[in-house]
Amino acid sequence: MTDPTPPAIPLSMAHLPTAGGLAVPWITPRTGDGRHLFGAVDADRKDQALLRRLCGVCGRRHDERLVLLMRLSDLPRQCTAEPALHPTCTAYTIAACPMVGGRLDHYRTTPQALDPTMIRPVDSPARRGAPAEPWFAVWLPGYTVITDHGALAASYAGSTPLRIRPITWPVSFLRMTRPASTHGPS
Question: Please, what's the b/e burial string for 64-101 (b: 16 or more CB within 10 A of its CB; e: otherwise)?
Protein backbone atom coordinates (compact mmCIF):
# COMPACT_ATOMS: atom_id res chain seq x y z
CA MET A 1 0.00 0.00 0.00
CA THR A 2 1.32 3.46 -0.84
CA ASP A 3 1.56 6.33 1.61
CA PRO A 4 -1.29 8.82 0.88
CA THR A 5 0.67 11.68 2.49
CA PRO A 6 1.65 14.24 -0.17
CA PRO A 7 5.41 14.81 -0.51
CA ALA A 8 6.92 17.91 1.05
CA ILE A 9 6.87 20.88 -1.31
CA PRO A 10 10.39 22.22 -1.92
CA LEU A 11 11.03 25.82 -0.91
CA SER A 12 11.78 26.66 -4.56
CA MET A 13 8.13 25.81 -5.32
CA ALA A 14 6.52 27.65 -2.39
CA HIS A 15 5.17 30.35 -4.75
CA LEU A 16 2.91 27.84 -6.53
CA PRO A 17 -0.76 27.30 -5.66
CA THR A 18 -1.61 24.02 -3.96
CA ALA A 19 -4.45 21.53 -4.36
CA GLY A 20 -4.91 18.55 -2.07
CA GLY A 21 -1.54 19.24 -0.45
CA LEU A 22 0.29 19.16 -3.80
CA ALA A 23 2.05 22.02 -5.56
CA VAL A 24 0.22 22.79 -8.82
CA PRO A 25 2.72 22.83 -11.71
CA TRP A 26 3.03 26.15 -13.51
CA ILE A 27 1.78 24.61 -16.79
CA THR A 28 -1.26 22.96 -15.19
CA PRO A 29 -4.45 24.66 -16.41
CA ARG A 30 -7.20 26.01 -14.21
CA THR A 31 -10.81 25.71 -15.33
CA GLY A 32 -13.25 28.60 -15.35
CA ASP A 33 -14.70 27.32 -12.07
CA GLY A 34 -11.24 27.34 -10.40
CA ARG A 35 -10.27 23.65 -10.51
CA HIS A 36 -6.72 22.67 -11.46
CA LEU A 37 -6.60 19.86 -14.01
CA PHE A 38 -3.61 17.72 -13.11
CA GLY A 39 -2.45 15.82 -16.18
CA ALA A 40 -3.61 18.50 -18.63
CA VAL A 41 -1.50 21.36 -19.98
CA ASP A 42 -2.14 25.08 -20.49
CA ALA A 43 -1.13 25.57 -24.15
CA ASP A 44 0.15 29.15 -23.75
CA ARG A 45 2.23 28.38 -20.67
CA LYS A 46 3.66 25.24 -22.27
CA ASP A 47 4.83 27.24 -25.29
CA GLN A 48 6.20 30.02 -23.07
CA ALA A 49 8.13 27.47 -21.02
CA LEU A 50 9.63 25.84 -24.12
CA LEU A 51 10.56 29.09 -25.87
CA ARG A 52 11.76 31.05 -22.83
CA ARG A 53 13.53 28.04 -21.21
CA LEU A 54 11.26 28.03 -18.16
CA CYS A 55 10.67 25.04 -15.90
CA GLY A 56 7.28 23.44 -16.52
CA VAL A 57 6.73 22.96 -12.78
CA CYS A 58 8.00 26.12 -11.05
CA GLY A 59 7.91 28.49 -14.06
CA ARG A 60 11.41 29.83 -13.35
CA ARG A 61 14.34 29.98 -15.80
CA HIS A 62 16.65 27.01 -16.20
CA ASP A 63 20.24 26.99 -15.02
CA GLU A 64 22.91 24.70 -16.45
CA ARG A 65 21.13 21.35 -16.08
CA LEU A 66 17.60 20.44 -16.94
CA VAL A 67 15.56 17.27 -17.17
CA LEU A 68 12.99 16.11 -19.68
CA LEU A 69 10.51 13.57 -18.31
CA MET A 70 9.80 11.25 -21.20
CA ARG A 71 7.74 8.16 -21.86
CA LEU A 72 9.37 5.14 -23.51
CA SER A 73 7.65 6.02 -26.80
CA ASP A 74 9.23 9.51 -26.74
CA LEU A 75 12.83 8.28 -26.46
CA PRO A 76 13.31 7.06 -30.06
CA ARG A 77 11.96 10.39 -31.34
CA GLN A 78 14.21 12.30 -28.89
CA CYS A 79 11.52 14.87 -28.20
CA THR A 80 8.57 15.61 -25.93
CA ALA A 81 5.87 18.28 -25.79
CA GLU A 82 6.46 18.61 -22.03
CA PRO A 83 8.75 21.48 -20.96
CA ALA A 84 12.00 20.69 -19.19
CA LEU A 85 12.26 20.76 -15.38
CA HIS A 86 14.86 21.68 -12.79
CA PRO A 87 16.37 18.66 -11.00
CA THR A 88 14.51 19.59 -7.77
CA CYS A 89 11.22 19.97 -9.66
CA THR A 90 11.88 16.60 -11.31
CA ALA A 91 12.33 14.86 -7.96
CA TYR A 92 9.12 16.46 -6.65
CA THR A 93 7.19 15.45 -9.79
CA ILE A 94 8.31 11.83 -9.48
CA ALA A 95 7.17 11.82 -5.84
CA ALA A 96 3.90 13.70 -6.44
CA CYS A 97 2.65 12.53 -9.85
CA PRO A 98 1.16 9.04 -9.71
CA MET A 99 1.67 8.46 -13.45
CA VAL A 100 5.31 9.54 -13.63
CA GLY A 101 6.05 7.93 -10.27
CA GLY A 102 4.64 4.60 -11.43
CA ARG A 103 1.74 4.42 -8.98
CA LEU A 104 -0.86 4.16 -11.76
CA ASP A 105 -0.75 1.17 -14.04
CA HIS A 106 -3.15 2.56 -16.69
CA TYR A 107 -3.97 5.92 -18.20
CA ARG A 108 -7.37 7.42 -17.32
CA THR A 109 -10.27 5.94 -19.22
CA THR A 110 -12.39 9.09 -19.58
CA PRO A 111 -11.22 12.40 -21.05
CA GLN A 112 -11.07 15.49 -18.86
CA ALA A 113 -13.40 18.39 -19.67
CA LEU A 114 -11.00 21.07 -20.92
CA ASP A 115 -11.45 24.80 -21.47
CA PRO A 116 -10.42 26.25 -24.89
CA THR A 117 -6.93 27.30 -23.66
CA MET A 118 -6.07 23.76 -22.59
CA ILE A 119 -4.55 21.09 -24.77
CA ARG A 120 -4.85 17.35 -24.76
CA PRO A 121 -1.81 15.40 -25.95
CA VAL A 122 -2.04 14.36 -29.59
CA ASP A 123 -1.89 10.69 -28.60
CA SER A 124 -4.40 10.89 -25.73
CA PRO A 125 -7.13 8.93 -27.55
CA ALA A 126 -4.68 6.05 -28.06
CA ARG A 127 -3.58 6.18 -24.41
CA ARG A 128 -7.10 6.24 -22.95
CA GLY A 129 -7.32 3.19 -20.69
CA ALA A 130 -4.03 1.77 -22.03
CA PRO A 131 -1.31 0.40 -19.77
CA ALA A 132 1.00 3.11 -18.45
CA GLU A 133 4.33 3.41 -20.21
CA PRO A 134 7.70 3.42 -18.49
CA TRP A 135 9.03 6.91 -17.70
CA PHE A 136 12.60 8.20 -18.01
CA ALA A 137 14.49 11.26 -16.80
CA VAL A 138 16.67 12.60 -19.60
CA TRP A 139 19.33 14.95 -18.17
CA LEU A 140 20.53 17.61 -20.61
CA PRO A 141 22.56 20.83 -20.78
CA GLY A 142 19.91 22.25 -23.16
CA TYR A 143 17.38 21.45 -25.89
CA THR A 144 16.12 22.69 -29.24
CA VAL A 145 12.53 23.78 -29.75
CA ILE A 146 10.97 21.98 -32.70
CA THR A 147 7.47 21.48 -34.09
CA ASP A 148 6.23 17.93 -33.55
CA HIS A 149 2.74 16.87 -34.67
CA GLY A 150 1.87 20.56 -35.12
CA ALA A 151 2.90 21.60 -31.59
CA LEU A 152 6.09 22.95 -30.03
CA ALA A 153 8.31 20.35 -28.39
CA ALA A 154 11.70 20.06 -26.68
CA SER A 155 14.19 17.98 -28.66
CA TYR A 156 17.68 16.71 -27.88
CA ALA A 157 18.23 15.18 -31.35
CA GLY A 158 21.81 15.75 -32.48
CA SER A 159 23.15 16.07 -28.93
CA THR A 160 24.21 13.57 -26.31
CA PRO A 161 22.22 13.50 -23.06
CA LEU A 162 24.22 13.77 -19.86
CA ARG A 163 22.32 10.66 -18.73
CA ILE A 164 19.05 8.82 -19.22
CA ARG A 165 17.65 7.30 -16.05
CA PRO A 166 14.64 4.98 -15.91
CA ILE A 167 12.04 6.12 -13.40
CA THR A 168 9.41 3.39 -13.67
CA TRP A 169 8.60 0.13 -15.37
CA PRO A 170 4.89 -0.42 -14.65
CA VAL A 171 3.96 -4.06 -14.06
CA SER A 172 1.07 -3.76 -16.55
CA PHE A 173 3.50 -2.66 -19.26
CA LEU A 174 5.86 -5.52 -18.48
CA ARG A 175 2.99 -8.01 -18.73
CA MET A 176 1.92 -6.51 -22.05
CA THR A 177 5.43 -6.67 -23.57
CA ARG A 178 6.66 -9.97 -22.10
CA PRO A 179 6.14 -13.00 -24.36
CA ALA A 180 3.76 -15.61 -23.00
CA SER A 181 5.56 -18.49 -21.35
CA THR A 182 4.79 -22.07 -22.26
CA HIS A 183 6.49 -23.29 -19.10
CA GLY A 184 3.83 -22.27 -16.60
CA PRO A 185 3.54 -19.14 -14.47
CA SER A 186 6.66 -17.23 -13.54
Answer: eebbbbbbeebbeebbbbbbbbbebbbebbbebbebbb
* Dihedral of alpha carbons 141, 27, 107, 7, sign: positive
pTM: 0.82
Phi, psi of 138 (to 5 degrees): -105, 110
Q: CA-CA distance, 125 to 26, in Å (whole number)?
A: 24
Segment 176-186 mean pLDDT: 48
The 3-state DSSP composition of the chain as helix, strand, coil percent (nearest 5) reads 20, 25, 55
pLDDT (tens digit per residue) in 92-110: 999 999 989 988 887 666 6
